[in-house]
Amino acid sequence: MSAFSKFAAILFLPTFFCCRLQAQTFGGNPPSLKWQQINTPAARIIFPKGLDSSASRVASIIKYMNKDIAPTIGFRQKKINIVLQNQTTVSNGYVGLAPFRSEYYLTPDQNSFELGSLPWAEQLAIHEFRHVQQYNNFDVGLTKLFHTIFGEGGQAVLSTLTVPNWFYEGDAVYNETLVSRQGRGRLPFYFNGYRALWSAGKNYSWMKLRNGSYQDFVPDHYPLGYMLVAYGREKYGDDFWKKVTHDVASVKRTFRSAVKKYSGSSYPQFRMQALDYFKQQFSAEDQPQKQAKHFVADEEFPAFINDTSFIYVKSSYSKVHRFMLKSGNWEKEIRIRDASLDNQFSYKNGKIVYASYRPDLRWGYKDYSTLQLLDVATGTQKSIGKRSKYFSPDLSEDGKTIIAVLQSPQGKSELHLIEVSTGKLLQKVPNPQNLIYTYPKFLDAKTVISAVRNPKGMMSLAEINLVNGNVQALTPYGFRVIGFPTIQKDSVFFTAAAEKNDQLYMLLLSTKKLYQLKNKTLNEAIGNYETTVNKHAILYNTFTATGFHLQQIEKSEVNFEPVSESVLAENPSDLNISDLEKNNADLLASVPNTSFTTKKYGGLSHLFNFHSLIPSFNDPDYTLSLVGENILNTFQSELYGTYNRNEGYKELGFDAVYGALFPYLSGGINYTFDRRSLYQSRDVYWNETQVQGGFSIPLTFSNGRTTSRLRLGSNYVYNQSKYTGFFQSQLGTRSYSYLSNALTFSSQNQRAYQQIYPSLAQNISLSYKTAVTYYDANQLLANAYFYFPGLFKNNSLVLNAAFQKNNGANGIGLFSNQLPFSRGYEAENLHQLSKLAANYHFPVAYPDAGFANFFYLLRIRANVFYDYTRASDSYASGKPFKANFRSVGSEVYFDSSLWNELPFTFGLRYTHLQDQDLFGGHSPNRFELIVPLSFF
């Protein structure tokens, strides 16, 4: 690491910490959830009551594997707290620092091609615990010194700045691939992004591959990291990355120099060799493709209406997901799709059914997947049921019933038969084999076909009797993933992983014979997915460098080649990574189910979990804070000390907020000594004690296309000032108290990737502060922003209106000025302020360029604005004061990235003052640097 990098790490430490803390979902679980725990030397598993088997399995995997996989990263061990979340429909997991904890979101994904088919809790355990080992073993050298001084947040800063994010995820994906029969390193889908770039001849720079683009598709750091990690271990041994990362985390060497030391190749050479190694694995199959210059759109889940028309879901970087009706070269938009976890839908008889995401009113870890029925002719939509967790629905041929997968919080997968007209549950299909159902399709009124996963994570295409739950496996179980079945008469078309590509297959139900679909178009495609079939044609999508694109071929052009059904039971390809077949290969299969003692984990356990010491420099205030958050994310606490350079005062304080109840409860106390001000032409000094307490209620509302948030609360503040020195006898001790009441409301529709702001949104805040004792004062503040579409693509018109009024004879300065004053002016806290503003934001360019692996510029955007503030007040003489503060100007923002890792936006502002700056300078032209607008 360079001297500049070390300095920057320290300089931006407070901002980084802030974002780390805000990344947590605070107060996200209802208090009715009862928590249990399993304790092992390596991990404490904290889980809701009823998930004992999942928790035991996670604990067994970690206990059994820890010592066997540690040699490739290091043997340092610090106990981790792992929280199993079962109230959310999201499939995810993470390990974080500040505080050091992990969370597993236990609902499995329906799409087996993206994440695999291993039991989801097991997949999370073998992937996420590798991150635990990484953090433990990167706590060395200068990183450990930062940890010692600044706590876990200090470690987070150095870990982020020294070891690239591609290594963290690539190493964890390699681990999941090594210790199991599957893992993403064996899934063809995982490599589709890079295969598409290679076949299209898009040779992006290293910085572009690392930082992404607003105009081109760039795969994320997961597959990039896997290829680099796998190549490093294959060519230079299992301890190669252990040596590299130890030196880097210690800050003995840069990542570049460490790779060169232990591989003998320069870092650019190593990267090129690694990517070429994997490129050669696919070069024989992938044909050169000529495509559009930039990303076009994703076209997904087509469904034939008749022989010439079909419906599909389309999304681009400038437009959100929407249902489209297409016939030949003509197409029209049916409706914007509600926010969803995937884009699957089913069409029958003029109706579309799909599952949409719905957040809970209050609890951030609790959400739903609700069925929506859309009329194609009218564009109207209605919800079927509420607060459900349904996935992958399919309409029956007559359109009267729906079959859908329900993923329960208890980890069970069930097929539910639902009546369309009433939303009534008609049948809950038994599941004695404890299968995970994915993408079920009606065969007839009493039978469905579904891709299923058994408890080992092996997949099969299965026929399920809706009456008794009997399951007949139509293909042998294996670790090759299967999905997206569609039915035409007695033929089931589906996608399954072949050696290096996801291919289309057909199973003839009458004979149980399996066929692979082949022709030139299919053979040259990078993956073939989401098929729909009519009498004459097959429509599907395939992956390209410019998005998922639809392809249609005539059945007469397809060779239906018979294949043995045993091909689906073969092991997935390891892409010539021999390490995957030795050492700890398939270690997961040998993990015993260990019996653990389960104990209660109280909601108030480990409340004061102080984890980081945060320095904050916001001149004239210099603050040092000791911050904490408990493992369940229900209690945040902060001890702090502040020095104010202007007045020379010192402040000590404690703040806390408890979020496990329906309202947040907050409180704090601080003591300030040596405060100073001017009184009767002399300095007056005093010490000040302030105590506060209050509540707030955060609420979330969503109709699918629009998400709204309402937060309301009140805070009581008591302040006592004890004057010292010359004025002690005259002023003595004075105390006052006031109430601060606030309401904020925000609402926005879905935003596409390139859009600077949502096309329609509102953000409104109201604040009313009133003195309760001693002073006669109050302040009303209203501030609102309204967002509208601009004249052109990705343009945005933002209007702002604000009003502030201070009342009271003896407390005019009690409440500080919070109104967003006209830009360019120095502001004063006057009696009444009114403000109107207009902003027009638009993109200027997408440079996709950088230098020195330090700074990368993704987008330049601009804003032209007009501000008008009207102020009124009166002097002590009673003479009225009124003035206008008008300004016009422009801003240019640079959306960029630092060190190929950290998002960073800064801007430049020019303001022309149309009125005199009564409280500031004299020049009508002002230039400002806006930094940081967004950092880390």
Describe the protein.
By secondary structure, the protein is of the alpha+beta class. The chain folds into 3 domains: 111-289 and 577-596, no CATH class; 298-569, TolB, C-terminal domain (Neuraminidase); 651-935, membrane protein fhac: a member of the omp85/tpsb transporter family (Porin, Beta Barrel). The chain has a 17-stranded antiparallel sheet that branches. Strands 4-5-3-2-1-30 form a 6-stranded mixed sheet, with helices on one face. A 5-stranded antiparallel sheet has the order 22-23-24-25-29. A hairpin with a 5-residue loop joins β32 (621-629) and β33 (635-644). α3 packs across α5. The longest helix is centred in the N-terminal third of the chain and has 18 residues, at 52-69. The radius of gyration is 30 Å and the shape is globular. Residues 1-23 have low confidence and may be disordered.
